[in-house]
TrEMBL record:
Keyword 4Fe-4S: no
GO CC annotations, alphabetized: plasma membrane
Region entry Disordered, spans: 294-342
Chief localization: membrane
Function comment: Catalyzes the transfer of the diacylglyceryl group from phosphatidylglycerol to the sulfhydryl group of the N-terminal cysteine of a prolipoprotein, the first step in the formation of mature lipoproteins.
Source organism per UniProt: Schumannella luteola
Any matching Pfam family: LGT
Highest classification ranks of the organism: Bacteria, Bacillati, Actinomycetota, Actinomycetes, Micrococcales
Localisation per UniProt entry: Cell membrane
UniProt-recorded name of the protein: Phosphatidylglycerol--prolipoprotein diacylglyceryl transferase
Top-tier EC class: transferase
Positions of transmembrane segments: 37-55, 67-87, 121-137, 144-162, 208-226, 233-251, 263-285
Length: 342
């Protein structure tokens, strides 16, 4: 098999699925311009779904109510997207503010509202998602630490899928690769982020691919450490922050990106270092305060009693690793299930 000379970027017309044109062909009264689906948005949606499914499974393993994660996702997803967008806008003011910019006009490219064009900052999503998880914990009675520990691995999966959207959008690529590097990414010279002075045909670091690989490895690392060290009380989140901070401090430093600099270092690199520090603090503090396991994913007095599960003949253990289905036809199993439920 021949070694590829470079990594191509998808054709620009792949960025949008023209559903409106297909509907128009069947129903001429439907305007062909109505119904554009951006592939970037589909990648983000796929990441959200993956994160919800992973978090739901992890909470179920702890004995939480099935699909209680949906009550939390309403807050984490909404606030995560909103804060992510505005974090990006205010760390890239030159892209959105100033003469000739379509700052507020949602119908024009470059608006601060045009989320589908890309530009959703990870650290903004992390801050907004954390706030949403806290609000969700108040409504559901789940411990905040249990929620964030359940969500953390899924966030890595969501970020990996989201980076595919950056590839489709031809954005957030890295510095030029060394001459002859076969893994270089092809970017059109007309790209708004093309560095001035570089010749046509220059290949760039595929930072989207680097981050996908880093995130997938991170999922494996977190699951391995969780089983070996029985990480709870927010410690899974701590490992996640450290892992992501290490990776992003490198990816952000090589990215062709007009973000703001502070003391000669990009804002997102400072944020990555901050994530590492916060992760280490959480790990140390929570290890000292809570050397044992969480007694329940629920706050005291807010425990969920799975009466419907007992009535239907099944319930779930409070183990991190095992899901036990109780057969209602067995007297001994039914008795055991009632004890678990109580």
């Amino acid at each position: 098999m021949a070694v590829p000379a470079s990594i191509p970027s998808p054709p620009s017309d792949w960025q949008i699925i023209q559903v409106g044109q297909w509907i128009h062909s069947w129903f001429p009264a439907w305007p062909a311009a109505w119904g554009q689906i951006h592939v970037y948005a589909l990648c983000i949606l796929a990441g959200i779904i993956a994160a919800i499914l992973m978090a739901n499974h992890r909470l179920n393993q702890r004995g939480a109510e099935r699909w209680v994660i949906l009550d939390i996702a309403i807050w984490t997803v909404a606030l995560g997207i909103i804060v992510a967008r505005f974090y990006h806008v205010f760390t890239h003011p030159g892209d959105y503010f100033g003469p000739g910019k379509n700052t507020w006009n949602i119908t024009q490219p470059g608006s601060i509202w045009a989320v589908w064009e890309g530009g959703n900052a990870y650290y903004g999503a992390l801050l907004g998602g954390a706030l949403g998880a806290y609000i969700g914990s108040r409504f559901t009675g789940l411990r905040f630490t249990a929620i964030v520990d359940a969500i953390a691995p899924g966030m890595l999966a969501a970020q990996a899928l989201g980076r595919l959207g950056n590839w489709f959008n031809h954005e957030l690529f890295g510095l030029p690769t060394p001459d002859g590097a076969w893994w270089g990414l092809q970017i059109e010279q007309s790209n708004a982020a093309w560095p001035e002075g570089l010749p046509a045909g220059t290949l760039f670091q595929p930072t989207f691919l680097y981050e996908i690989i880093w995130n997938v490895i991170g999922i494996i690392v977190i699951y391995g450490l969780r089983k070996k060290l029985d990480l709870q009380w927010g410690k899974v989140l701590a490992v996640y922050l450290i892992w992501q901070g290490i990776g992003r401090s490198f990816f952000e430093s090589i990215r062709v990106d007009p973000s703001e600099y502070y003391f000669g270092i990009r804002a997102n690199v400072w944020a990555a270092v901050g994530a590492i520090v916060i992760g280490l603090v959480i790990l140390v503090v929570q290890t000292r305060r809570h050397p044992g396991a969480e007694p329940s994913p629920y706050l005291p007095g807010r425990e969920w009693t799975p009466t419907s599960a007992v009535d239907s003949g099944e319930t779930y253990s409070d183990s991190d690793d095992d899901e036990t289905v109780v057969d209602e036809e067995s007297d001994e199993a039914a008795t055991s299930g009632a004890k678990v439920a109580s």
